[in-house]
Each structure stands twice: as structure tokens, then as C-alpha cells.
Amino acid sequence: MPAIRWRRARLAAARAETPTARTLVFDVVDWPGHLPGQHVDVRLTAPDGYTAQRSYSLATPGGVELTVEGLPDGEVSPYLVEELAVGDEIELRGPVGGWFVWRPDTAPVLLVAGGSGIVPLMAMIRARRTAGSTTPFQLVYSVRTPADRYYGAELDRAEPGLTVTHLYTRVEPRRRIGKQDLPGPGPDVFVCGPTGFVEAVADLLLDLGHDPARVRTERFGG
Amino acid sequence: MGIISRGFRGRPRDDHGRLPPGQYQVYDFPVLSAGPTPRIPLDQWEFAIDTEAGRTHRWTWQELMALPQERPTVDIHCVTKWSKFDTGWQGVSLDVLFEDVETVAEYALIYSYGGYTTNLPLEDLLDGKAWIVHRFDDEDLEPRHGGPARLLVPHLYFWKSAKWVRGIRLMNEDWPGFWETAGYHNYGDPWREQRYEGD
Amino acid sequence: MHLDGNALAGPLGEIFAVDVTAAVGRCAACGLRGPVAALRVYDAGPGLVARCPGCEEVVLRLVRGPQEAWLDLRGTVSLRIPLQ
Description:
The complex is a heterotrimer of chains A (222), B (199) and C (84).
Chain A: E1 6-18, E2 21-28, E3 39-45, E4 51-57, E5 64-69, H1 77-83, E6 89-96, E7 109-114, H2 118-130, E8 137-143, H3 152-156, E9 162-168, E10 188-194, H4 195-207, E11 215-220
Parallel strand pairs in A: 7-8, 7-10, 8-9, 10-11
Antiparallel strand pairs in A: 1-2, 1-6, 2-5, 3-4, 3-6
Chain B: E1 24-25, E2 46-50, E3 56-60, H1 61-66, E4 73-77, E5 82-93, H2 94-97, E6 107-112, E7 117-121, E8 131-136, E9 139-140, E10 150-152, E11 165-171
Parallel strand pairs in B: 1-5, 2-11
Antiparallel strand pairs in B: 2-3, 4-5, 5-8, 6-7, 6-11, 8-9, 8-10
Chain C: E1 3-4, H1 9-13, E2 24-27, E3 33-35, E4 40-44, E5 47-51, E6 58-64, E7 69-72, E8 76-80
Antiparallel strand pairs in C: 1-4, 2-3, 2-8, 4-5, 5-6, 6-7
């Protein structure tokens, strides 16, 4: 297997998830396929050779799709959300990340998402559906307001064996995630979101008696 | 060179003549770190200069504050390509700290609380080129920016301006520091774009 | 604030032909074993520093220049790397 390299990616389609976030669908020649939970590194090059690089998780197992939040002071995300048009090209490196990955198994799964941490966990939910798996999945999704949810319509559709709980931090009842929102030990756990969120949830899970070896985390900066 | 993405500009990179090659100007103050922020209580803080002959000169926080203070305003340049103009600091010139230090050493190894090190020729610390600073922008230097005190040596890339500075070891031979042993350039002159080993 | 070793997957993937984030290493300073993905990663620009989540000592350093990369693994006793 050759080492991963940068590949050209052409934007094939885009759809808004929220007023500030967009899902980008790319055509990538010779894409080797990927596992749910993996991510790619995105590189943009300006005409004078200046480059900027960021990492984004793949949102689905079935194609190269990224969901990007436009950050107010961002350098790359505003370009990806507002400027990049169908037919334009960027470069991707990947797929990368072999540890924060769900492989179909019989063990039930707990997914805990903070903000844009939902993206790789959604890839896992979609992979479960595509595989026709009946493994029990529980998603706890902490986000500021209902309008900030990604994949809202899809998560609202009832799906056998998947339970979804939303926690809103900026609208009533304002709640930060707590022990009462999480089950006890048993499932394999995936936690993803900003570093502070992931560390807080990891502490809650340890307090609840979860085996640290069965908790996998991915921290986004910030 | 990679594929150019239509319409991507990146951060403003206008050249005012004050920008070294490859740099762009920022107006905030990015925080980059090689590790967690150490917390050093001022009553335990000390700064040392260790000579090649084995003599150590030490200053407590009070002693540092009692020395003549300067308020340099300088441009700073990070190897990650951002530059910030007219940054205002307060601290003690290395010329003051070296007044009573007897040495014939040519090299210095800077060491910090938390384990960071960086190296440079001793002459790059003297003659008004460097300070131990403890205030930035008229406020106490924040821990995430290197407080209580950091080295400021603005004519080199900012990885040489060691945060949480603890001391200077004077040596007869050059001793590459934390990043210099991992692929960064040994000297780091932004005007000659000396970012990596071999540049 | 730090990231975790998942952030090393891309940069190390350019060097190694297999994914290294699932590799299990032992910290040379304190002996703690764990996956590379669980290391505390500090991103200092072209330099990435990965520290032991137990003792914070440096386990791995990676500097990515335009034409080459420098990898320092002296903080690791060894890495056990799963091969597909």
C-alpha cells in the first residue's frame, strides 16, 4: 500500500447544512475508499504559491464528503463555505486515521458529539445503515441551538436501533453535558469535538466506570 | 507547487517593505506552543546565567524588577509565516544582565521552564539586540505568551524568543536546541528565510 | 490547548506506508503504553510535538519542511504497528 499523497479533488455538489455550514461533495480520481471516522487534510494554494492546510472529517462512508463550518476569523473555512464553486479544485490528502474508526461489530456503540464533532460520528451512523447493521447505536449530540444541528432532517427520521439525544447549550433548557446524559459501561465509545468538550466528556465517562480502552476520542482544535 | 484553488487568497500578504520574505502581517497574536503552559509562582521564579567556567549569576523576580527597565517596540516574525509589527514590551536588556558576567564563550543555550531550549551565538544577545521581557502591550505578560518572563530577540525567527525563560548557559560550542535538533535552521534569520535545516 | 495523535495521521501518512495512529508506543520517560492517537499533540506550525498523556514528556517530534520531513522518535521505546 503506497503512502498517502495529495490528490486533486473537484467539487461536484454542495448543500447547506446550516446558515454557516456546508457539506461539500468531491470527485477524486482513484480515491482508495475510506472507513467511517477517518479524515482528510485539505490544502489550498494561492496563485503566488502560498498554501494553507486544515483537517476535516469525512461525513459518509460512501463518498468524499466534508461538512465545513465557516469560522468568522478563518482563513480556509470561509473560502470552502462561501467561495468554492462546483467545478473548482482543491487538494486532499488521505484518508487518514486508523484508530478513530468504527468497524461493524456486535458491541453497542455510544457516540458523543460536540458541535462539528458530529461529522465523523455521522459517517459511522451512515455506515451502520449502509451495512444493514442492527448494532444498537446511541448518539448524544451537544450543540448551541437547534439551528446549528448538522444533518437535522436525517437524524430526526426514526431509525431502528439508533437513539438520538440533543443537548442545547444556548437555548432553554441550557445544558452542558453531564453524567445523567450518558449510559454506564458496556458500549464502545467515540467522542469527538473541541478539545475542552472531549476532555470533559472523557472525565465523565471514566467517573461512570467506562473502560478507558473502549473510549476513543478525537479532538478538534479550539 | 500544488494545484491552485480558484479564488483562494489566504491572509493578506501585502509587502510594506517591513515584511521578510514569505511572511504575512497579522494584527492578533497567535499562540503556538511545543507543550503545556508551565505555571511558575513568582516567589519561586529565578533567572540564571551559567558561564562556561562554571560560575552562575542568579536573579530573583524582585531583583529583575529592580534593574533598569526598557520598553522596546519591535517587529516579530514567526517561522509559521506571520509577522506582527510594532509590538510593545517591557523588560531588562541582556546587556544589563551581562554587565558583571565574565565570559569568553561564543554560544548560548537558552533554557526554559517546561524543558524548551534554543541556541544562538552570544553576540546575537548583546548590543541592544535582546531583552528578558515581562510585560506586553502595557500588561503583565500572559502565561500563554510566555509569562511571567520570556526572551525577546526579534531579529531572529520567534522560536528563538524562548517563552518561560529560565536561564542562559554559555558554551564554547554550539548546542542545537529543541527545534534546531528537529529540522529547524540553526540560526533563523528571517531576512534570509532560514526556516529549516539546509536553507 | 492541544490536539491528539489523530492529527498526526496525515503528516505521518506521508512518511509511512501504513497508518501509524493505531500503533502502540511506550513512552521512554515513564513507560506508559498507548496508541499514537492518544498522544497530546501540540501544533507549533511546521513543527508538531507529541507528548505522553501520562507524564507530558516528548514522545515524538515531526517537522515538515517544503522538501523533506524530520522525524524524531527518541521519546518512544518502540512502536508496535499493526499491518493490514
